[in-house]
Amino acid sequence: MSDTIQAIRGMNDILPEHSPRWQHFEAVIRDWLAAYGYREIRTPIVEQSTLFKRAIGEVTDIVEKEMYAFEDVLNGEHLALRPEGTAACVRAVIQHNLLYNAPQRLWYAGPMFRHERPQKGRYRQFHQVGVEALGYAGPDIDAEHMVMTADLWRRLGLSDIVLELNTLGNAASRARHRARLITHFEAHQDQLDADAQRRLHSNPLRILDTKNPAMQALVESAPRLMDELDEAALKHFEAVQNLLRGNGIEYRINPRLVRGLDYYNYTVFEWVTDKLGAQGTVCAGGRYDSLIEQIGGKPAPACGYAMGVERLLALMDESGIAVPPASIDAYLVHQGDAATVFAWQVANSLRQAGLNVVLHCGGGGFKTQMKKADASGARFALIIGDDEAADASVTLKSLRETAEQARCSLAEVTAILQSRN
Ligand code: ATP
Ligand code: MG
Questions:
Q1: What is the mean pLDDT of residues 251-261?
Q2: pLDDT single digits (tens) 7-20
Q3: Which of 57, 73, 394, 398 is the most buried (most CB within 10 A)?
């Protein structure tokens, strides 16, 4: 039917057959973050659009072209669906004064929204897990972020992800670099695409982040920020690398790594894979020492990163990592008034013993109900008729093995289901 309502382009349903992968991923994530002492923060999905403009930067892909910004028709407020999680996290930390006398190790997870061209690994609603350490100035926390991420890949069973590292230095170095970049790009005006033309004077560093293949040569020959770094930035970068080496983390320095958001300084990093085609960055982040002040808080250093859940799940699929579907221990088949009353009691009792039980609903004869039991994927069918109801027993039938049916007490059934879990 032509007027059937569909999901919005680039926004996906996660169907029951796929949700076990998500649940597995989320369970691993929670244990992993707890192991490093990070605590969860949950912020609203909608914020004032000014927050993102101020945090991410006016002259960025996200704010210029990708943000779902709209006016609240009821009161005229300018709002936006969050395109990333750091800005809201920092907003909440300032609003609730969380940095008052302690630094914070925080994480968040959930959907983010960017109006991009949908393709494999790039959606308009996608999911991130983000990690932020606020109030930490030293290179140790930068290194912790990369070391713990390497541990996550191990916990998920993923290999084939490479760490790329760079430093953006401090504001003075970037200002010197900026001037040299403008000179370089001005000398090759004719080779700049429309985006680059526009950014030449407003944000030339962003030009290095271009995805336009026609501009790669020009970007390759551009002056390097690395050559403008001062003593402190070099020392910080060296200390991060020493910690990485000390923890056996391999990395590759990529001087072209600038990141798509404006708020970074010093360390930036990306974890990339060549197994996912063009959308190969699965995790990215770095240090953002000026962001808290920029959003209106008392100046405090910080460092953080976010990973793309869809891309990581795709990589798990690609790598053949199987996630078992949710298990049902028993499907309860019942017929007759007394049997049905007893079946509800049996189901409740088994669930209280920690078992997963589906009670047949919708009536029908034993034969139809057994078909449903087979299709449910349960390990056992438990059959309750008038005979069973009369002596409070249950007939147990394996749906996986060709074993005889056995008439058991409720205690016996509970023990069997638990022992074969
Ligand atoms: P890209 O260069 O791929 O556009 P980005 O630099 O815009 O990425 P970040 O803002 O750093 O991405 O977000 C962190 C991670 O979130 C990315 O590394 C990626 O794994 C994931 N991600 C970003 N945008 C999308 C999207 N539209 N769809 C799916 N995942 C995304
Ligand atoms: Mg992007």
A1: 84
A2: 999 999 999 999 99
A3: 394
Per-residue model confidence (pLDDT) at position 61: 87
56 CB-near residues (< 8 Å, 6+ apart): 62, 63, 83, 84, 87, 261, 262, 263
CA-CA distance, 138 to 7, in Å (whole number)? 45
Q: Is the CB of 10 under 6 A from ligand 1?
A: no
Contacts of 25 (CB under 8 A, 6+ apart): 156, 309, 312, 313, 316
CA–CA dist 114, 334 (Å, integer): 50
| The pLDDT of residue 420 | 63
If we measure between CA atoms, which residue out of 40, 66, 41, 33 comes closest to residue 52? 66
Q: How confident is the model at residue 1 (pLDDT cuts 50, 70, 90)?
A: low
Pairing of strands 330-334, 380-384: parallel
Instruction: Indicate which atom in ligand 1 lies nearest the CA of residue 279.
Output: 3
**Which tokens hold the place of 377?**
């994927």
CA of 308 to the centre of ligand 1 (A): 6
Local confidence band at 218 (pLDDT 50, 70, 90 cut-offs): very high
CATH 3.40.50.1980 fits 330-419, yes or no: no
pLDDT digit string (tens) for 122-166? 999 999 999 999 999 999 999 999 999 999 999 999 999 999 999
Q: Which atom of ligand 1 is nearest to the CA of 283?
A: 18
Task: Establish whether residue 82 lines the binding site of ligand 1, counting it when its CB lies within 6 angstroms of any ligand atom.
Answer: no
122 Cβ closer than 6 Å to some ligand 1 atom: yes
Contact (CB, 8 A) for 355 and 371: no
For residue 227, report the distance from its CA to the centre of ligand 2, in Å: 27
Cα–Cα distance for residue pair 317/160, rounded to 1 Å: 13
> Where in the chain are the domains?
19-170+230-318, 330-419
Query: To test ligand 1's pocket by mutation, which of 120, 275, 311, 316 has the most ligand atoms within 8 angstroms of CB?
Result: 311
Residue of 108, 129, 270, 279 best suited for mutating to test ligand 1, as the one with most atoms within 8 Å of CB: 279
311 lines ligand 1 (CB under 6 A): yes
CB 262 near ligand 1, within 6 Å: no
Backbone dihedral angles phi then psi of residue 224, each to the nearest 5 degrees? -95, 135
Q: For residues 249 and 243, give the distance between their C-alpha atoms in angstroms, rounded to a whole number.
A: 9
Longest C-alpha distance within the chain, in Å?
93
